[in-house]
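$ fold --in a.seq
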Amino acid sequence: MENHRGEKIIDALKNTGPVTTYDEDGQINNGFGKAHGDQILSPAQERNLKLRMDLRILPFLSILYLLAFLDRVNIGNASVFNLPQDLKLKNVQFNTALTIFFVPYILFEIPSNIILRRVKPNVWLASCMFLFGLDTTMQGLVKNYGGLLTTRFFLGLLETGIFPGCFYIIGMWYTRSEAQRRFTFFFGSTSLAGAFGGLLASAIGKMSGLRGYSGWRWIFILEGVLTCVVAFALFFVLPTFPEEAKWITEEERAFIEAKQRREQGDSAVHRPIVLKDIVRVFTDYKIILGGFMYLGLIVAAYGYAYFSPTIIRSYGYSPIQTQLHSVPPYAAAFVLSMIIAYLSDKARHRFLFAMFPTLLAIAGFAILLTVHTRRNVQYAALFLVAMGTFSAMPVIICWFNMNLGGHHRRSVGVAWQIGFGNIGGIIATYSFVAKDQPRYKKGYSIGIAFVCLSAVASILYFFACRAQNNRRDRATTDLGLSDYEKSELGDMSPDYRYLL
């Protein structure tokens, strides 16, 4: 029986399925159909459910990731207040301290998501949050380069599961047509963290000398303590998966699961992920493209997040003015990202809404490469880089990961894209070195090159998805796969259609 089932799954991977049909919402009906016991809510009941989902899921995950990203990149703000000088850092030691964060952050992405399926999300995520908040506080007490390296390493280890875990949870509650605005709101916490971090740093920096501590130490200490306090509160309110949530009725639970099943099939949530599942995911070349789509933007994003305070400082601003001038580009990035997300969801299209902000980022880097003596123009170019990069990233991530069907493919796919993409963080940390200031020609060149790489990977991914959709539309072979077999295939099922 198992051999026969395996043969049919292999045939499905080679073949494609029936002619595309559409459901009542105008979305592609992926052919999974409504399972026995599916529930239907009235429009008013569905709106009420979505509102409660938005209020119970998005704010808390956004706060979690805002503080995680703030603790990760506040070292850029701290550097303006003489961190390198106080710790006597030489040559590229500061860059190495940034790099060490990404070693555990990359290596433990997939294991962390597997743990998330075995431990309740509120327990796992809140525990990680408290620990990386404590680590950030300790970062404010280090005495030398070795101490800084140690705390940055453990910060990367403790933050490794936060982003893919949060996105994984969002993907289990919302369908593809609902996800972009929600995910962008969540991801927008990175932009808000940049803006919030600049404002906080400008205020905390004035505490320099208090109790003998420099301003950069107070940035780490106070922001770390804030994270620890919030972690206690989030333990009680962080969302879990629909099948485990206690704040929805059984009818609502069945409705959510039915919508997910119609879109991506039975999620196979009750079967644990095994090595064979992971290997099967990587036989799909689109998975590799998804990693490069994110990698290219990560180089630009972390290059901006870590070094924009130093770049702005090179324009002649004081430390406090530098922190304040770092706020507006992030704020503009948040606004543009929400506009793009709204339009993308309305159009039920991702590709063009990913390419437009990508082109903005390319234009910003091009200006920074060619203009060196006009401060206002250079500052405006930073707006383009921030707006383009931080607006394209949520579209890229949501497009790729919401196209993955089933718990197993999505869990592994999310961790892969984020883990592989964050190799770009290592590249970014060595892109801007002290000897290249104030023009940073190498850093800007690396930034524009990798954004172009992301654009090329996105184009290839778009055509790959469109080709598979067309191939499945043309095929007429009915392989007679069971619901179990379709759930095992996920988005590789012949009935599945990718969002373009």
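$ fold --in b.seq
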Amino acid sequence: MSQSNDPVDIELANSPSPRLPSTPRLPGYPSFAHFVSQDGDAAIYRRYESLSARNLLYLQSELHELEGQLEELDAADVKERDLDDDESRKIARLWHHYARADNERALRHRALQAKIRAKIKEYHEALVLESRVLALSPPTPRSLAMFKRWYFHHPQPVLWGRDKDLFRNEQDLVALAPVETDRLNIFLQKYLGWFLKEKRETSTHEDLFYFPARRVHRAGAVVSIFLSAVLLIGAIVCLVNIDPKNTNFRIGMIVLFTCLFAAVVGLLTNARRAEIFASTAAYAAVLCVFMNNNT
């Protein structure tokens, strides 16, 4: 999704299935839910980082307090043991003695341990959930721009009250289904999305149009194939038409086409550095072998 003066374009993760005639929806939660359901890329929500951090801090302090109480009970047991108290030794070694309902000291241990068990379970679950939330990716600038453009489309936001500022903090937003794509597809979505659009129900916002990801991927594949063919065949044609005795010029052409190939791979794909080096070396090796065989 991108923000411009042109109509909004929303990318769909999958090609749409046949739909029944749309049901009228009131602006607000009904229309908002329908908008999000139309496109997985629009599933953008708050992560509430500050609230989550405070919740974990509270749980951590509660557990720390319970830990201190348990240490105090253990210290008291050690003190009683030093006085040759047989009761303390049995509580520390015999489970059936620890579990007796008529032992006041054991009851204190068991009551405290029950609190610790429940609280530490809550704390660990909160830690695991927070780690999963932190691993979620933020929305892409393109998706976020169009999401906010839709949300603030009218003079007033879709939701009122406090919720009118629900998505103001962009650093606190996550995308549940971020679209993984390369730079070439991003370029096609941004500048040629209108060309790939299809007719679809667009709720109450007439300036929205949709285009399925399959069209973008197909267009990207066509462009990639064309560029690959041009870089390889173009280099071969140039080398064939250069005098074999003019070695310096031929080497210069190989350098030029190799740099062009590396630029295309590096700028239009999501290839990692090692992959860029490997593919560029293979491309240069092919041209060098061809030049040697054509002398």
